[in-house]
Prior knowledge:
Blueprint: E1 6-11, H1 24-33, E2 39-44, H2 50-57, E3 63-66, H3 84-89, E4 94-97, H4 100-103, H5 109-121, E5 125-130, H6 134-138, H7 142-153, E6 163-167, H8 181-199, E7 205-209, H9 217-221, E8 228-231, H10 238-249
Parallel strand pairs: 1-2, 1-8, 2-3, 3-4, 4-5, 5-6, 6-7, 7-8
The structure holds 2-phosphoglycolic acid (PGA).
2-phosphoglycolic acid binds at residues 11, 168, 173-174, 209-212, 230-234.
Amino acid sequence: MTNKYIYFIANWKMYGDLKSVNSLNKVINFTKKYKKKKFKLIYCPPYTLLESFYKKIKRTKIELGGQNCHFEPSSGPYTGSISPTMLKKTGAKHVILGHSENRNEGETEQQINKKINSSVKCGLKVILCIGETLVQKKKKKTKQILLRQIIKGLYKIKNLNNITIAYEPVWSIGTGVVPSNHELEKNIKTIRNILKKNIKFKRPKVLYGGSVNIKNIRNLARIKDIDGFLIGGASQNAKKFIDIVKKTII
Ligand code: PGA
C-alpha cells in the first residue's frame, strides 16, 4: 500500500432504508477504538439516506459521499437528478462517478467528464470508476479501455488531487470473482503509468473494487500500490464491513 491512509468506500447502491442508519453505530464504535490506525471510511448511501447518515456521522471520522450526480452544478430542469451542490449541502464530501452500472445505462465519457468538472468545482472529491468488461478483457483490450476512460474522464480537469481512481473490472462487480494478484498488480501499474505519463497526475490514489469480501481481503490487501477498496455488497453489513477493514489494517 502506497499512500498514508487506506480508504474503504461503502457503495450501498440501491439498498438500505432508515433502519439501516443504526447499523452505523457499530462502525462508529469501531472507528473510535482504532482511531490511531490510518484508515478512512466513506459511506455512499442512496440519496434518500444522505441526510440521516450525515446526522449520525457528522462528529465522527466517517465521511459521506453520493453515488452519482448531474453535471449541472447547482439546479435545473432535470427530473430525477441531484446536483453536486445539492450533494454538498447534505454534508457529502465525495461523489462516485463513472460507475459501470451507470455507464451501462448509457452514461457517456463526455457526461462523466462534465460531472467530474462540476463536482470538483463545487468542492466535492471524486471517486472515478474505470474498468474493462469481460469481452474487452478477453479481446486483450484492457489497457486501451483504461487509457480511454482516464483520458476522456479527466480531460481538462484541474485540481487532480481531488480525484481518486477506483479500478473496478466490470466482470468482478457483484460476481464473487476477483482478478488474480498478478493481473491486478499489472492493471494498477498500467493505470498509474497512464495517469503519470498522459495527464501528469503524479501521486494518485488508486483503489480496487469488485467482489471485495471477508474471504479475499487479506490477499487483496497484499497487493502492491493499492490505496484502498470500493466495496458494494459486503459494505451493507456492518460486521462484514468492519471485518474487512480490520483484516486490512490490523
Ligand atoms: P461489489 O460492488 O463489491 O458488490 O462487487 C462493488 C461496486 O460496484 O462498487
